[in-house]
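Reminder: ligand-aware prediction takes two inputs, not one.
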Amino acid sequence: MGKLILLPGKERSAMKRHPWLFAGSVGRLEGRARPGDTVEVLADDLRPLGRAAYSPRSQIRARFWTFDPAEAVDDAFFKRRIAAAVARRAALPELRGQQGIRLIHAESDGLPGIIADRYGDTVVVQLTSAGADKWRAAIIAGLLKATGCVRIYERSDSEVRGLEGLEAVTGWLHGTAPSQAPAIVENDVQLAVDIVGGHKTGFYLDQRDNRALLGQLAAGRDVLNCFCYTGGFSLQALAGGAASVLSIDSSGPALVQAQANLALNSRLPAARAEWLEADVFAALRDFRKAGRRFDLVVLDPPKFAPSAAHADRAARAYKDINLLGFRLLRPGGLLMTYSCSGGVGIELFQKIVAGAALDAGRDARIVRRLAGAADHPVALNFPEGEYLKGLLVQVD
Ligand code: SAH
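Here is what comes back for the chain with S-adenosyl-L-homocysteine:
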């Protein structure tokens, strides 16, 4: 096994069990290691710190698999870690029996670079690091054993693989394509999930609780759902008794899926739903000019800032849509607003939303702070895992 020896003083983050080792912390590699190989990590004084996956092309030069220098990283390791991640969710009553659930949340489950989402009897995996890529077979075996699922599909086509020098990989790893897209029931609403062509692994499971909250708030209100994707928030609003729900997305296929999802739920009042294929920024400006107003506006945009380096440009985009959102609210209305940018922390996000309210001339207060669901935990040693943050704001 190659040995990765850190520069003096650079063992500090590993001592706090942070799973990433940046290129600037690494002194030298002794022995040989190819991308994804497991290396021993040692402090400058040769104190062993643990074992990590080596990734020579990435700025994140290594990701710790274990902080126990004696723990073997082998098939049994992945079996144990995957079983532990699945058991962690089974121990939380709110997650028990969920048909759509994130089973492995990468670093926060001690499995850097590995995402696994379950939709019914199908699991979709996404491998985003060189180390995860190398252990594909062990990961599949661990998932089959821990879940009893009948199909595993790989969606390793996230752009972050490029940073690790990895090509996109997609396809069935176990079992064959089902005759119908997998469907889940979330908060009593049926949703079909396009695991092959949809975004990420097919669905944004992290917003499950927030969609339920929208259902509780929607009764009698005119709801505007911006960045609706396949209609998760829209359908919850209809189920919650919204007077009307206007949903906007720039993706035609997402809107087709959204309407198909609505059709799966025959008890929902389809006549109250309106779908608009448009750029949210432009559409909201048009509504403002036309004097159209709403009681509840949801803003769940894509990641504007993948990293802190993009925070400035992202801040302007967040400010812009939140400003437009505030302007479209009737008195007493609610703004449910999110950022899933890792590069924009909750403090900065709150500042942006406050600035938007000020510029819109609206007095407003935060009535709830919102986050991802419990199957997207944030390991305390990995604060970067807290990417999704939201605010529920009530205007005067
Ligand atoms: N709220 C959704 C997830 C939103 S993901 C859910 O609960 O499932 C972000 C969505 O924004 C994607 O569907 C993407 O197609 C859409 N999008 C990205 N940029 C956009 C833009 N400028 N205008 C409208 N939609 C956009």
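The two ends are 63 Å apart (CA to CA). The first helix runs from residue 12 to 15. We will return to this case in the review session.
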